[in-house]
């Protein structure tokens, strides 16, 4: 359990670090501001403590959720721990869970595997959500591409970290 908490904490900082690079004016920051209709003047006077605090909290939510996307073994226990006899360590369901974890507990627990599933979540979940919001906000395809690209990469990195180090 301890390594999972550390992996989730590590994945939580990915959006902050990647955002610092991705949205830097020398990378995609100026293009993002133009596509979003913002300017440097609009950005001044913001409560950055609140913005970074909420970003960290939301990133923690995302990292916590990502473990269910990238670690398949979680589903073993979710199926078997709700059985009536699961509290008895010698019950059929408890013994089956132990056997499954002994056989497959470390299967597909690599950075590459987690990054694949994280990237898939970015493409199949984050991109459509961002795209729908952007369409109703009357933002262009460049805005969608800049933000979706960030989240696809971000979720890929988060998934890789969580899968490899949990």
Number of strands: 0
Tally of structural domains: 1
Q: What's the helix-strand series?
A: HHHHHHHHH
User: How large is the count of helical segments?
Assistant: 9
Structural class: mainly alpha
Query: What would the principal axes of the Cα set say about the shape?
Result: elongated
Q: Over all CA atoms, what is the radius of gyration?
A: 20 Å
- Round the mean pLDDT to the nearest integer and report it: 93
Strand fraction equals under 5%
- Show unreliable segments: none
Distance between the termini: 8 Å
What is the makeup of the main sheet? Answer: none
Helix content: over 70%
Structural summary, described in words:
With 166 residues, the protein is an all-alpha fold. It has one domain. It is 78% helix and 0% strand. Helix 3 packs across helix 9 and helix 5 packs across helix 9. The longest helix has 26 residues. It is elongated, with a radius of gyration of 20 Å. The termini are close together.
Helix and strand topology:
Elements: H1 2-12, H2 14-22, H3 25-36, H4 40-43, H5 48-70, H6 74-80, H7 92-104, H8 111-136, H9 141-165
Helix pairs in contact: 1-5, 1-9, 2-9, 3-9, 5-9, 8-9
Keywords:
166 residues; single chain; mainly alpha
Provide a short characterization of the protein structure.
With 166 residues, this protein is mainly α. The chain has helices at residues 2-12, 14-22, 25-36, 40-43, 48-70, 74-80, 92-104, 111-136, 141-165.
């Amino acid at each position: 359990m301890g390594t999972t908490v550390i992996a989730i904490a590590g994945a939580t900082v990915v959006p902050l670090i990647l955002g610092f690079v991705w949205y830097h004016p020398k990378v995609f920051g100026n293009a993002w501001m133009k596509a979003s209709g913002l300017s440097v003047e609009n950005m001044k006077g913001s409560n950055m403590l609140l913005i970074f605090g909420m970003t960290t909290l939301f990133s923690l939510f995302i990292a916590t959720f990502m473990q269910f996307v990238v670690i398949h073994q979680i589903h073993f226990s979710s199926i078997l721990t709700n059985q009536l006899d699961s509290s008895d360590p010698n019950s059929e369901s408890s013994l089956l869970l132990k056997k499954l974890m002994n056989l497959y507990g470390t299967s597909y627990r690599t950075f590459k595997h987690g990054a694949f599933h994280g990237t898939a979540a970015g493409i199949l979940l984050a991109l459509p959500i961002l795209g729908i919001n952007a369409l109703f906000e009357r933002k262009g395809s460049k805005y969608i591409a800049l933000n979706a690209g960030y989240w696809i990469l971000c979720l890929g990195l988060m998934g890789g970290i969580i899968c490899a180090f949990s």
